[in-house]
Predict the structure.
Amino acid sequence: MSGEFITHKFPKIKTLKIYTKKDYKLITNKTAVYFIFNRNKKLIYVGQTNYLRIRLWGHFCSINNREQHSNIPIGKAFYFSYLDIDKPDKLYLFEKFYVYHYKPIYNFPYNMQNKHIPVEEN
């Protein structure tokens, strides 16, 4: 697999529905890549999970519980969006694509270790 280049078409983030942080309670646990936005709807974090509702709770819950569950500082996350992923083995690929192309402030550089990234976005 070394040297193999994977291509895939990725939806543009601006085409996804944006929810308020309170809406996380309406979301079921599903496999997804998710996007966290600040007050101005600027993308600040991209993540992946097999349990979307639980992971969103980690970003949006109270101060007492939150510190150990999120890289995003308290008070910075206001909105979210997500993309259902039907194959869990594709999660990392999708997350890496969006982190690479959008460079959200709260995603750390170690997410970019593998240079074989997809290049096409719909």
